[in-house]
Protein backbone atom coordinates (compact mmCIF):
# COMPACT_ATOMS: atom_id res chain seq x y z
CA UNK A 1 0.00 0.00 0.00
CA UNK A 2 1.27 3.46 -0.93
CA UNK A 3 1.47 5.82 2.05
CA UNK A 4 1.80 9.56 2.49
CA UNK A 5 5.31 8.88 3.82
CA UNK A 6 6.19 7.12 0.53
CA UNK A 7 5.15 10.22 -1.42
CA UNK A 8 7.29 12.36 0.88
CA UNK A 9 10.30 10.05 0.42
CA UNK A 10 10.02 9.97 -3.38
CA UNK A 11 9.23 13.60 -4.06
CA UNK A 12 9.82 15.47 -0.80
CA UNK A 13 13.39 16.53 -1.55
CA UNK A 14 12.33 18.49 -4.61
CA UNK A 15 9.43 20.04 -2.72
CA UNK A 16 11.73 21.13 0.11
CA UNK A 17 14.23 22.53 -2.35
CA UNK A 18 11.54 24.83 -3.75
CA UNK A 19 9.52 25.74 -0.69
CA UNK A 20 11.50 25.03 2.50
CA UNK A 21 12.12 28.73 3.15
CA UNK A 22 8.40 29.49 3.01
CA UNK A 23 7.18 26.50 5.03
CA UNK A 24 5.89 27.33 8.53
CA UNK A 25 7.47 25.43 11.44
CA UNK A 26 4.41 23.20 11.89
CA UNK A 27 4.68 22.01 8.26
CA UNK A 28 8.38 21.23 8.55
CA UNK A 29 7.84 19.40 11.81
CA UNK A 30 5.01 17.28 10.40
CA UNK A 31 7.03 16.55 7.25
CA UNK A 32 9.97 15.28 9.30
CA UNK A 33 7.82 13.24 11.70
CA UNK A 34 5.82 11.50 8.98
CA UNK A 35 9.04 10.49 7.21
CA UNK A 36 10.45 9.01 10.44
CA UNK A 37 7.26 7.37 11.71
CA UNK A 38 7.72 3.63 12.38
CA UNK A 39 11.24 3.59 11.00
CA UNK A 40 14.58 2.84 12.75
CA UNK A 41 14.96 6.60 13.28
CA UNK A 42 12.20 6.49 15.91
CA UNK A 43 13.70 3.58 17.85
CA UNK A 44 11.67 0.60 18.96
CA UNK A 45 11.98 -3.00 20.14
CA UNK A 46 13.45 -6.28 18.91
CA UNK A 47 11.56 -9.56 19.27
CA UNK A 48 12.83 -13.08 18.57
CA UNK A 49 10.80 -16.21 17.81
CA UNK A 50 11.36 -18.98 20.36
CA UNK A 51 10.78 -21.58 17.64
CA UNK A 52 12.52 -20.52 14.43
CA UNK A 53 14.83 -17.86 15.87
CA UNK A 54 13.79 -15.19 13.35
CA UNK A 55 13.84 -11.62 14.62
CA UNK A 56 11.19 -8.97 14.14
CA UNK A 57 11.66 -5.22 14.61
CA UNK A 58 8.85 -3.04 15.92
CA UNK A 59 9.44 0.70 15.55
CA UNK A 60 7.75 3.53 17.43
CA UNK A 61 5.18 5.94 16.01
CA UNK A 62 5.90 9.65 15.61
CA UNK A 63 2.69 10.72 17.42
CA UNK A 64 2.33 13.81 15.24
CA UNK A 65 -1.36 14.72 15.07
CA UNK A 66 -1.17 15.04 11.27
CA UNK A 67 0.32 11.58 10.71
CA UNK A 68 -2.11 9.14 9.03
CA UNK A 69 -0.43 6.10 10.65
CA UNK A 70 -0.81 7.19 14.27
CA UNK A 71 -3.61 7.64 16.82
CA UNK A 72 -5.54 4.37 16.55
CA UNK A 73 -4.99 3.83 20.27
CA UNK A 74 -5.93 7.45 20.94
CA UNK A 75 -9.35 6.81 19.42
CA UNK A 76 -10.08 4.09 21.98
CA UNK A 77 -8.81 6.24 24.84
CA UNK A 78 -10.93 9.18 23.69
CA UNK A 79 -14.00 6.97 23.31
CA UNK A 80 -13.67 5.67 26.84
CA UNK A 81 -13.30 9.18 28.26
CA UNK A 82 -16.26 10.62 26.35
CA UNK A 83 -18.47 7.66 27.25
CA UNK A 84 -18.60 9.01 30.81
CA UNK A 85 -19.85 12.41 29.61
CA UNK A 86 -22.67 11.41 27.29
CA UNK A 87 -26.22 12.29 28.26
CA UNK A 88 -29.09 9.88 27.54
CA UNK A 89 -30.67 12.26 25.01
CA UNK A 90 -30.79 12.69 21.22
CA UNK A 91 -27.98 14.64 19.53
CA UNK A 92 -27.77 17.10 16.66
CA UNK A 93 -25.00 17.57 14.11
CA UNK A 94 -24.46 21.20 13.06
CA UNK A 95 -21.91 22.24 10.41
CA UNK A 96 -20.72 25.85 10.05
CA UNK A 97 -18.99 26.73 6.76
CA UNK A 98 -17.08 29.90 5.92
CA UNK A 99 -17.86 31.49 2.52
CA UNK A 100 -15.16 31.00 -0.09
CA UNK A 101 -14.33 34.72 -0.07
CA UNK A 102 -12.83 34.29 3.42
CA UNK A 103 -10.69 31.23 2.78
CA UNK A 104 -7.55 33.07 1.67
CA UNK A 105 -7.77 35.41 4.65
CA UNK A 106 -8.33 32.49 7.03
CA UNK A 107 -5.37 30.57 5.65
CA UNK A 108 -3.04 33.55 6.09
CA UNK A 109 -4.15 34.02 9.71
CA UNK A 110 -4.79 30.47 10.91
CA UNK A 111 -3.37 30.95 14.41
CA UNK A 112 -6.02 33.55 15.30
CA UNK A 113 -8.92 32.88 12.95
CA UNK A 114 -9.42 29.18 13.72
CA UNK A 115 -10.10 29.98 17.36
CA UNK A 116 -12.53 32.75 16.43
CA UNK A 117 -14.29 30.43 13.99
CA UNK A 118 -14.86 27.68 16.57
CA UNK A 119 -15.89 30.10 19.30
CA UNK A 120 -18.33 31.99 17.06
CA UNK A 121 -19.99 28.75 15.96
CA UNK A 122 -20.38 27.36 19.48
CA UNK A 123 -21.57 30.63 21.03
CA UNK A 124 -24.14 31.07 18.27
CA UNK A 125 -25.65 27.70 19.14
CA UNK A 126 -25.63 28.49 22.87
CA UNK A 127 -27.26 31.88 22.29
CA UNK A 128 -30.06 30.68 20.02
CA UNK A 129 -30.80 27.44 21.87
CA UNK A 130 -31.22 29.40 25.13
CA UNK A 131 -34.24 31.16 23.57
CA UNK A 132 -37.47 29.78 25.15
CA UNK A 133 -39.01 29.50 21.68
CA UNK A 134 -36.55 26.73 20.83
CA UNK A 135 -34.79 24.82 23.64
CA UNK A 136 -34.84 27.32 26.46
CA UNK A 137 -31.79 25.90 28.20
CA UNK A 138 -28.00 25.57 28.19
CA UNK A 139 -27.01 22.81 25.76
CA UNK A 140 -23.73 20.95 25.46
CA UNK A 141 -21.60 21.69 22.40
CA UNK A 142 -18.57 19.78 21.17
CA UNK A 143 -16.91 21.71 18.33
CA UNK A 144 -14.39 20.11 15.95
CA UNK A 145 -12.37 22.05 13.37
CA UNK A 146 -11.99 20.65 9.84
CA UNK A 147 -10.04 22.33 7.05
CA UNK A 148 -10.35 19.96 4.09
CA UNK A 149 -12.71 18.66 1.49
CA UNK A 150 -12.55 15.15 0.03
CA UNK A 151 -10.09 16.23 -2.68
CA UNK A 152 -7.77 17.87 -0.09
CA UNK A 153 -8.68 21.41 -1.10
CA UNK A 154 -8.80 24.09 1.60
CA UNK A 155 -12.29 24.22 3.07
CA UNK A 156 -12.37 25.44 6.71
CA UNK A 157 -15.53 24.49 8.60
CA UNK A 158 -16.65 23.39 12.06
CA UNK A 159 -18.58 20.27 13.03
CA UNK A 160 -20.59 20.59 16.23
CA UNK A 161 -22.30 17.86 18.16
CA UNK A 162 -25.10 19.36 20.26
CA UNK A 163 -27.25 17.81 22.95
CA UNK A 164 -30.95 17.60 22.07
CA UNK A 165 -31.95 19.68 25.05
CA UNK A 166 -30.46 21.91 27.73
CA UNK A 167 -30.46 22.81 31.39
CA UNK A 168 -32.78 25.62 32.48
CA UNK A 169 -31.34 28.88 33.78
CA UNK A 170 -32.03 27.86 37.39
CA UNK A 171 -29.99 24.69 36.85
CA UNK A 172 -32.82 22.43 38.00
CA UNK A 173 -34.90 21.44 34.97
CA UNK A 174 -33.97 19.62 31.79
CA UNK A 175 -35.53 21.25 28.72
CA UNK A 176 -35.73 18.74 25.83
CA UNK A 177 -35.53 19.96 22.24
CA UNK A 178 -38.44 19.33 19.91
CA UNK A 179 -38.30 16.13 17.94
CA UNK A 180 -36.05 16.50 14.88
CA UNK A 181 -35.70 20.23 15.49
CA UNK A 182 -33.08 22.19 17.40
CA UNK A 183 -33.00 25.82 16.22
CA UNK A 184 -33.94 27.67 12.99
CA UNK A 185 -31.02 27.35 10.59
CA UNK A 186 -31.53 30.70 8.89
CA UNK A 187 -31.43 32.60 12.18
CA UNK A 188 -28.40 30.56 13.27
CA UNK A 189 -26.62 31.43 10.02
CA UNK A 190 -27.15 35.17 10.51
CA UNK A 191 -26.14 35.04 14.16
CA UNK A 192 -22.97 33.14 13.30
CA UNK A 193 -22.13 35.56 10.49
CA UNK A 194 -22.54 38.56 12.75
CA UNK A 195 -20.52 37.09 15.62
CA UNK A 196 -17.66 35.95 13.42
CA UNK A 197 -17.35 39.22 11.50
CA UNK A 198 -17.51 41.22 14.74
CA UNK A 199 -14.74 39.05 16.22
CA UNK A 200 -12.62 39.58 13.11
CA UNK A 201 -13.10 43.35 13.23
CA UNK A 202 -11.97 43.41 16.88
CA UNK A 203 -8.95 41.18 16.27
CA UNK A 204 -7.83 42.70 12.95
CA UNK A 205 -8.29 46.46 13.16
CA UNK A 206 -7.18 47.35 9.64
CA UNK A 207 -8.54 44.38 7.69
CA UNK A 208 -10.94 45.09 4.85
CA UNK A 209 -13.15 42.11 3.96
CA UNK A 210 -15.35 41.80 0.85
CA UNK A 211 -18.67 43.58 1.39
CA UNK A 212 -20.57 40.74 -0.31
CA UNK A 213 -20.04 38.40 2.65
CA UNK A 214 -22.19 40.64 4.88
CA UNK A 215 -25.23 40.21 2.66
CA UNK A 216 -25.06 36.60 1.52
CA UNK A 217 -26.37 33.66 3.54
CA UNK A 218 -23.60 31.56 5.09
CA UNK A 219 -24.09 27.82 4.66
CA UNK A 220 -25.08 25.92 7.81
CA UNK A 221 -26.47 22.40 8.07
CA UNK A 222 -28.35 21.12 11.11
CA UNK A 223 -29.77 17.61 11.38
CA UNK A 224 -30.33 14.93 14.01
CA UNK A 225 -27.18 12.88 14.60
CA UNK A 226 -27.11 9.11 14.58
CA UNK A 227 -28.73 7.73 17.70
CA UNK A 228 -27.49 5.26 20.28
CA UNK A 229 -24.47 5.48 22.55
CA UNK A 230 -22.22 3.30 20.39
CA UNK A 231 -23.06 5.16 17.19
CA UNK A 232 -22.64 8.63 18.71
CA UNK A 233 -19.24 7.81 20.22
CA UNK A 234 -17.82 6.29 17.06
CA UNK A 235 -19.30 9.08 14.95
CA UNK A 236 -17.44 11.68 17.02
CA UNK A 237 -14.17 9.75 16.93
CA UNK A 238 -14.18 9.75 13.13
CA UNK A 239 -14.17 13.55 13.09
CA UNK A 240 -11.73 14.14 15.91
CA UNK A 241 -8.97 11.68 15.06
CA UNK A 242 -9.10 11.94 11.28
CA UNK A 243 -6.35 13.53 9.17
CA UNK A 244 -6.66 15.09 5.73
CA UNK A 245 -6.24 11.77 3.90
CA UNK A 246 -5.79 8.17 5.00
CA UNK A 247 -3.14 5.96 3.43
CA UNK A 248 -5.82 3.57 2.19
CA UNK A 249 -7.16 6.24 -0.19
CA UNK A 250 -3.85 6.60 -2.06
CA UNK A 251 -3.77 4.41 -5.19
CA UNK A 252 -0.42 5.18 -6.78
CA UNK A 253 2.56 7.55 -6.71
CA UNK A 254 4.56 7.19 -9.93
CA UNK A 255 6.07 9.39 -12.63
CA UNK A 256 5.70 12.52 -10.51
CA UNK A 257 1.94 12.07 -10.04
CA UNK A 258 -0.22 10.85 -7.16
CA UNK A 259 -3.66 9.28 -7.61
CA UNK A 260 -6.14 8.97 -4.75
CA UNK A 261 -9.81 8.28 -4.16
CA UNK A 262 -12.20 11.08 -3.29
CA UNK A 263 -15.92 11.71 -3.26
CA UNK A 264 -17.64 13.41 -6.16
CA UNK A 265 -19.58 16.65 -5.81
CA UNK A 266 -22.43 16.47 -3.34
CA UNK A 267 -21.04 13.29 -1.77
CA UNK A 268 -21.68 11.31 -4.93
CA UNK A 269 -19.90 8.10 -5.86
CA UNK A 270 -16.17 7.81 -5.30
CA UNK A 271 -13.89 8.96 -8.11
CA UNK A 272 -10.15 8.94 -8.70
CA UNK A 273 -8.21 12.21 -8.75
CA UNK A 274 -4.67 12.54 -10.07
CA UNK A 275 -2.46 15.52 -9.23
CA UNK A 276 1.25 16.22 -9.40
CA UNK A 277 3.29 15.01 -6.43
CA UNK A 278 4.15 18.61 -5.61
CA UNK A 279 0.48 19.56 -5.57
CA UNK A 280 -0.39 16.53 -3.42
CA UNK A 281 2.22 17.47 -0.82
CA UNK A 282 1.07 21.09 -0.88
CA UNK A 283 -2.56 20.08 -0.37
CA UNK A 284 -1.69 17.73 2.45
CA UNK A 285 0.50 20.19 4.34
CA UNK A 286 -2.00 23.04 4.16
CA UNK A 287 -4.15 21.06 6.62
CA UNK A 288 -1.40 20.75 9.23
CA UNK A 289 -2.59 22.93 12.11
CA UNK A 290 -0.25 25.52 13.61
CA UNK A 291 1.23 24.72 17.01
CA UNK A 292 -1.09 25.71 19.82
CA UNK A 293 -4.30 25.50 17.80
CA UNK A 294 -6.82 23.16 19.44
CA UNK A 295 -8.87 21.09 17.03
CA UNK A 296 -11.56 20.18 19.58
CA UNK A 297 -13.25 22.49 22.08
CA UNK A 298 -16.11 22.01 24.54
CA UNK A 299 -18.82 24.53 25.47
CA UNK A 300 -21.99 24.78 27.52
CA UNK A 301 -22.70 21.67 29.56
CA UNK A 302 -19.59 20.01 28.09
CA UNK A 303 -17.35 22.87 29.18
CA UNK A 304 -14.64 21.75 31.64
CA UNK A 305 -16.06 24.22 34.18
CA UNK A 306 -19.41 22.38 34.12
CA UNK A 307 -18.19 18.81 34.73
CA UNK A 308 -19.87 18.62 38.13
CA UNK A 309 -23.17 19.95 36.79
CA UNK A 310 -22.96 17.55 33.85
CA UNK A 311 -22.71 14.60 36.23
CA UNK A 312 -25.78 15.82 38.13
CA UNK A 313 -27.75 16.10 34.89
CA UNK A 314 -26.76 12.55 33.91
CA UNK A 315 -27.95 11.19 37.24
CA UNK A 316 -31.22 13.15 37.19
CA UNK A 317 -32.11 12.11 33.64
CA UNK A 318 -31.43 8.47 34.44
CA UNK A 319 -33.42 8.54 37.65
CA UNK A 320 -36.39 10.30 36.00
CA UNK A 321 -36.80 7.42 33.57
CA UNK A 322 -35.73 9.37 30.48
CA UNK A 323 -32.68 7.16 29.87
CA UNK A 324 -32.64 6.24 26.18
CA UNK A 325 -29.48 4.14 26.43
CA UNK A 326 -31.14 0.77 26.99
CA UNK A 327 -28.67 -2.06 26.84
CA UNK A 328 -25.88 0.43 27.49
CA UNK A 329 -23.29 -2.16 28.46
CA UNK A 330 -23.99 -4.19 25.34
CA UNK A 331 -24.16 -1.29 22.90
CA UNK A 332 -20.90 0.48 23.66
CA UNK A 333 -18.27 -0.71 21.26
CA UNK A 334 -15.33 0.25 23.46
CA UNK A 335 -13.21 -2.64 24.56
CA UNK A 336 -12.02 -2.84 28.14
CA UNK A 337 -8.25 -2.95 28.60
CA UNK A 338 -6.96 -6.44 27.89
CA UNK A 339 -3.74 -8.11 29.03
CA UNK A 340 -0.91 -7.97 26.47
CA UNK A 341 -1.60 -10.35 23.62
CA UNK A 342 0.85 -13.17 23.01
CA UNK A 343 2.32 -12.40 19.60
CA UNK A 344 2.83 -15.29 17.21
CA UNK A 345 5.78 -15.38 14.87
CA UNK A 346 4.68 -14.08 11.44
CA UNK A 347 7.24 -16.32 9.72
CA UNK A 348 6.74 -19.83 11.14
CA UNK A 349 3.29 -19.24 12.69
CA UNK A 350 4.27 -21.69 15.44
CA UNK A 351 6.56 -19.88 17.83
CA UNK A 352 6.02 -16.92 20.12
CA UNK A 353 7.82 -13.61 19.82
CA UNK A 354 9.97 -12.89 22.86
CA UNK A 355 11.19 -9.37 23.64
CA UNK A 356 14.99 -9.14 23.29
CA UNK A 357 16.00 -5.51 23.61
CA UNK A 358 15.08 -1.91 23.08
CA UNK A 359 16.31 0.10 20.10
CA UNK A 360 17.33 3.68 20.96
CA UNK A 361 15.89 6.58 19.04
CA UNK A 362 18.33 8.05 16.53
CA UNK A 363 19.42 11.61 17.15
CA UNK A 364 19.56 14.29 14.52
CA UNK A 365 22.52 14.34 12.20
CA UNK A 366 25.12 17.04 12.97
CA UNK A 367 24.82 20.28 10.96
For the largest beta sheet, what order do the strands appear in spatially? 8-3-5-4-12
**Quick one: overall form?**
globular
Return the domain count: 2
Averaged pLDDT: 88
**Amino- and carboxy-terminal Cα gap:** 34 Å
| Count of helical stretches | 10
Low-confidence stretches: 322-339
Q: Work out the number of β strands.
A: 13
Q: Tell me the series of helices and strands, N- to C-terminal.
A: HHEEHEHHEEEEHEHEEEHEHHE
- Biggest sheet, in brief? 5 strands, antiparallel
Strand content: 15-25%
Q: Indicate the structural class.
A: alpha+beta
Model description:
By secondary structure, the chain is α+β, with helices and mostly antiparallel strands. The chain folds into two domains: 4-64 and 337-359, no CATH class; 72-244 and 287-331, no CATH class. It is 34% helix and 22% strand. The protein has helices at residues 4-19, 25-36, 72-83, 103-108, 110-129, 185-203, 229-240, 277-285, 307-319, 328-331, and strands at 44-49, 55-59, 91-97, 140-148, 154-163, 165-167, 174-176, 220-224, 250-254, 257-263, 270-276, 296-300, 353-359. Helix 1 packs antiparallel against helix 2 and helix 3 (72-83) packs across helix 7 (229-240). The longest helix is centred in the N-terminal third of the chain and has 20 residues, at 110-129. The protein starts with a helix and ends in an 8-residue tail after the last strand.
Amino acid sequence: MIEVADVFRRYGSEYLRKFAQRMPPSHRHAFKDILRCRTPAMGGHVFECNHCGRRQYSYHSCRNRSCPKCHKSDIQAWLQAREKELLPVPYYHVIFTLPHELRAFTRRNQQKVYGLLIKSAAHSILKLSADPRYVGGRVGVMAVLHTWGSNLTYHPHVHCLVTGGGLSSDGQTWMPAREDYLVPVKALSRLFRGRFLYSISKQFKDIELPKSIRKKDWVIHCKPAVQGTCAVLNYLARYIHRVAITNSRIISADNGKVSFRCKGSGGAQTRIMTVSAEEFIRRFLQHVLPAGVHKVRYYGLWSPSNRKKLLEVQQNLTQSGNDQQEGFEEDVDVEAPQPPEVRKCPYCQSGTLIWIRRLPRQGRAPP
